Amino acid sequence: MIEGGLKLVDRLPDGNARLRAELALRNVENFVAFVLHGGSSPERERLVRRMCELGDKIGEVEELLRGLITLCNLYFVRGDSAPGLEVAKRCLKLAGEIQDSGMIADAHYSAGILACSCGNLREGLSHFEAAALHSSRANRGMALVGFMYSSSTDLAWLLQLLGRINEAAKLSEEGLAHARDSKHLFNLGHELTLVGIISNYRRQPEIGLKHAEQAIALCEENGFLLWLRWGQINRGWALAELGQLDEGIAEWRLESKAWRKWAVPRNCSSQPPGWLTPMQRSEGQQKALRC
Length: 291
Prior knowledge:
Elements: H1 2-9, H2 16-37, H3 42-58, H4 61-78, H5 81-98, H6 101-117, H7 121-135, H8 153-161, H9 165-182, H10 185-201, H11 205-222, H12 225-241, H13 245-263, H14 276-290
Helix pairs in contact: 1-2, 2-3, 3-4, 4-5, 4-6, 5-6, 6-7, 7-8, 8-9, 8-10, 9-10, 10-11, 10-12, 11-12, 12-13, 13-14
């Protein structure tokens, strides 16, 4: 369908109407590539770069900003957090020019998740809180990267890392409940993944395992490769914490290797964030038990 639309676009005369028509189709194609191939796949990167190019050619801040915010997400999922944060800061300036609450929320979210990936958790929290404020004023319910504004699990994950564990538990429960009620399956996969990670951080592997297996079942049924990988890594982590060290570490190693091959196409030193320390601990436990 998208290819057919692009062929029709080729028949249009040169000008902004043609550029806008192609940009609309590339935006849809970007979501499809994210779901089917992964957030940092070569297929998606090609589309995101084209979206930025089209937005720049159109010459309007809002169209350029849409492409740049999507580019921020690409940087995040492939592990290029520092250059991504610079793009996010540019997005914040551009969003301030057009005073669109949804765009401002998306820019703050991008800056927040990238700041956290750079280790700047307090800066990330400030951006997440600003994103929540502006998203409540937006005239749409979905962020540009495909997640619902009502999602609270990203903030819950950050609060857990900052030691605000009661707030994190409350927000993660609310976010997951809302995702289930929404029936938005891709967003539900995102919520299950993050709640599983938070549960494992909290040393609640039984809960982490339950959410991991729910995420895996959902993703296998609907073809959500990104959340499927995370769900399988989550399951390995939970199994190791439950004492099934051989099985858990084997699954974690297998899926982490698949993650690096599938989700990080460039020479990034990337590993699914937050995993190294707990799994090293489990491996250390395994070695100690064998001695």
